[in-house]
C-alpha cells in the first residue's frame, strides 16, 4: 500500500513538472505578456483545470480549413480593392490621416472612398423600422449579417419585410452567429421562419463537432450588417432582437440596450458588401453570383469612408491599431463610447498620453453591467483613468449603453461593432467604419451630448470610497480578462 501511494505521488509530481515546463515553453509564444502571464498563473495554481481550459480556449486562431478560406477571402478583398476605390476625396486631409488609411489597407481594410452619405439612427425602434423599409425597396437582393438575429415581437416587421421580398423572388442571404443565437430565446422559431420564407442562411463560426465544424468556442462573429441591392447599407452596434434580448434575467432587472446604427449610401456600400460576401464565402464556400461591386455611383454626401474588418482571421488586431492611431493623432478632444471597456497596455497608454498632451478625453460607459466579469474588469481601470484626467460618464440604470464609437477633434470618427476590449481586439470578427467629415462628426457630437445629458459623471473622490470587496473583485476580474 505504501509503495502504491509513493508511486502515485511520484507520478503526479512528474506530470505536474512536465505540465509547468511545457507551459512555460508553449504559452508565451506569439502572445501578449499579460495574457501569457495570466495563463501561466492559471496553469501553475491549477495545473489540470488550467491546462484543460487552455486547450479549450487558449488558441485564438481559426481551424486550418477556416484559415484556408480566410486566406482566399483576404485575396478576394485584395483583388476587389482596384474597383472599390472610388469617389472624389475631400481636400486638405492631414498627413496622419493618409498614413492611417494606408496602414488600414495594409492590414486588410478596404480602400478609402469618397462621395458617401452617412446618417446616424439614434433610437432602437427607429433603426429597425428604417431597415425594414429599406428591405421592402429591394429589387435584386438583401444581405443580412447580425451577431444576434431573433424573430420576436419587436423584430416582427423586420422579418415580415424579408418575407415580402422573398415572395417576389428576391434572394435573401442571412448570416447569424451560431453560439450567440443558440443560447438565446426564440432560436428555433427564428430558423423556422427563415426556412419558411426561403431565405438562404448560414451559421457563422458554428460549433458542430458532429458535422466536423469546430473551433475555439468563444470565437464569435460580432458584426452587424445589412446591405440592400448594393445601393444601401446599415452597420453599427444593434442586433436584431428586442432591446431586452428576451432574457428573463434582463427583463427582471429591467435592462434595455441602447444602440446606434448608421445608414450608408455611395461607394462605401460596396466595401460593406464585400465584408458580407467574404463572410458568406467562409461559411458557404461559395460567392453568390450576380453581385456587382463595381457599379456604384456617388452617394448623398461627400464624406470619406473606409471599412475596417478585424478578427482572428487577420495577422494582427486591425481595430486596435486603428484606435491607437486615432488616439495618438488627436490634438484637442477624444470621446469614446464603449459598453465593454477593457483596454490592453497599449490602449491605456495611448489614452493617458493624450491627457498629458492636453487633449480633453471623455469615456461613456454603463452604470449597470450585463456581463459580471467584463463589468468588474472594466471598473478596475477607472482609478487610473480618473487620475490621468479622463472624464468618465455613467449611463444610468437600467439601460446598457451598447453604442461603440470614437471621435477625435472635429473631423474624424469611427463607428461599428467593435468594443474597446480584449475580446473585440483578439477574438471577435468585427467591422468598423472610419469617417472623415465635419458633418458626420457633428452627428456624433449631438449623440454624445444626448448621452452626456442623461449620464452622471464619476469623480475620483466618489470612486475612492468603493468598498474593499469591490476593489478585490474588480482586480480579480481584470486578471481573467487577459486569458486569451
Provide structural commentary.
By secondary structure, this protein is α/β, with parallel strands linked by helices. It is built from 19 helices and 20 strands. The strands form three sheets. It has a 16-stranded mixed β-sheet that branches. Strands 8-15 form a two-stranded parallel sheet. It has a two-stranded parallel ribbon with strand order 12-18. The model has no long low-confidence stretch (mean pLDDT 88).
Name the descriptors.
alpha/beta, Endonuclease, Chain A, two-stranded parallel ribbon, 19 helices, 20 strands
Spell out the blueprint of helices and strands:
Blueprint: H1 2-26, H2 33-45, H3 47-57, H4 64-84, H5 95-107, E1 113-121, H6 124-136, E2 142-146, H7 156-167, E3 172-177, H8 178-182, H9 187-197, E4 200-204, E5 220-221, E6 224-228, E7 232-236, H10 248-253, E8 256-258, E9 261-265, H11 268-284, E10 303-310, H12 318-329, E11 333-337, E12 341-342, H13 345-356, E13 360-366, H14 372-379, H15 382-388, E14 391-395, E15 399-401, E16 405-408, E17 412-416, E18 420-421, H16 422-426, E19 428-436, H17 438-454, E20 456-458, H18 460-463, H19 468-481
Parallel strand pairs: 2-3, 3-4, 5-19, 8-15, 11-13, 12-18, 13-14
Antiparallel strand pairs: 1-9, 1-10, 2-6, 6-7, 7-9, 10-19, 11-16, 14-20, 16-17, 17-19
Helix pairs in contact: 2-3, 4-11, 5-12, 6-7, 12-13, 14-19
Amino acid at each position: 500500500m505504501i509503495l502504491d501511494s509513493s508511486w502515485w505521488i511520484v507520478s503526479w509530481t512528474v506530470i505536474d513538472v512536465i505540465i509547468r515546463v511545457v507551459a512555460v515553453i508553449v504559452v508565451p509564444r506569439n502572445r501578449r505578456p499579460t495574457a501569457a502571464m495570466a495563463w501561466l498563473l492559471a496553469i501553475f495554481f491549477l495545473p489540470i483545470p488550467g491546462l484543460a481550459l487552455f486547450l479549450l480556449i487558449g488558441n485564438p486562431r481559426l481551424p486550418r480549413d477556416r484559415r484556408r478560406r480566410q486566406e482566399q477571402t483576404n485575396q478576394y478583398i485584395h483583388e476587389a480593392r482596384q474597383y472599390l476605390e472610388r469617389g472624389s476625396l475631400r481636400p486638405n486631409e492631414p498627413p496622419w490621416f493618409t498614413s492611417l488609411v494606408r496602414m488600414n489597407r495594409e492590414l486588410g481594410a478596404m480602400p478609402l472612398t469618397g462621395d458617401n452619405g452617412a446618417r446616424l439612427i439614434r433610437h432602437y425602434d427607429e433603426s429597425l423600422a428604417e431597415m425594414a423599409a429599406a428591405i421592402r425597396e429591394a429589387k435584386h437582393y438583401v444581405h443580412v449579417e447580425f451577431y444576434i438575429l431573433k424573430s420576436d415581437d419587436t423584430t416582427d416587421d423586420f422579418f415580415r419585410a424579408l418575407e415580402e421580398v422573398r415572395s417576389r423572388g428576391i434572394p435573401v442571404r442571412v448570416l447569424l452567429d451560431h453560439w450567440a443565437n443558440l443560447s438565446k430565446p426564440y432560436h428555433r422559431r427564428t430558423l423556422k421562419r427563415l426556412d419558411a420564407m426561403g431565405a438562404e442562411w448560414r451559421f457563422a463560426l458554428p460549433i458542430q463537432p458532429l458535422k466536423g465544424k469546430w473551433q475555439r468556442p468563444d470565437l464569435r462573429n460580432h458584426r452587424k450588417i445589412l446591405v440592400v441591392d448594393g445601393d444601401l447599407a446599415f452597420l453599427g452596434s444593434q442586433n436584431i432582437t428586442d432591446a431586452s434580448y428576451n432574457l428573463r434575467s434582463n427583463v427582471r432587472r429591467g435592462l434595455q440596450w441602447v444602440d446606434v446604427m448608421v445608414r450608408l449610401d455611395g461607394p462605401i456600400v460596396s466595401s460593406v458588401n464585400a465584408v458580407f460576401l467574404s463572410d458568406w464565402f467562409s461559411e458557404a464556400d461559395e460567392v453568390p453570383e450576380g453581385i456587382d461591386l463595381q457599379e456604384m455611383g456617388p452617394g448623398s454626401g461627400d464624406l470619406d469612408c473606409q471599412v475596417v474588418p478585424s478578427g482572428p482571421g487577420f495577422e494582427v488586431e486591425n481595430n486596435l491599431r486603428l484606435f491607437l492611431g486615432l488616439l495618438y493623432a488627436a490634438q484637442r478632444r477624444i470621446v469614446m463610447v464603449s459598453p465593454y471597456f477593457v483596454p490592453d497596455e497599449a490602449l491605456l497608454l495611448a489614452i493617458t498620453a493624450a491627457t498629458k498632451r492636453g487633449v480633453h478625453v471623455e469615456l461613456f460607459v454603463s452604470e449597470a453591467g450585463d456581463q459580471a466579469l467584463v463589468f468588474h474588469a472594466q471598473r478596475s481601470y477607472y482609478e487610473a483613468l480618473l487620475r490621468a484626467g479622463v472624464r468618465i460618464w455613467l449611463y444610468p440604470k437600467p439601460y446598457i449603453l451598447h453604442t461603440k464609437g470614437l471621435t477625435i477633434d472635429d473631423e474624424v470618427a469611427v463607428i461599428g461593432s467593435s468594443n474597446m476590449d480584449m475580446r473585440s481586439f483578439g477574438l471577435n470578427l468585427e467591422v468598423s467604419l472610419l469617417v472623415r467629415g465635419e458633418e458626420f462628426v457633428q452627428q456624433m457630437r449631438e449623440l454624445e451630448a444626448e448621452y452626456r445629458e442623461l449620464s452622471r459623471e464619476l469623480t475620483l473622490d466618489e470612486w475612492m470610497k468603493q468598498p474593499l470587496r469591490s476593489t478585490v473583485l474588480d482586480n480579480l476580474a481584470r486578471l481573467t480578462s487577459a486569458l486569451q
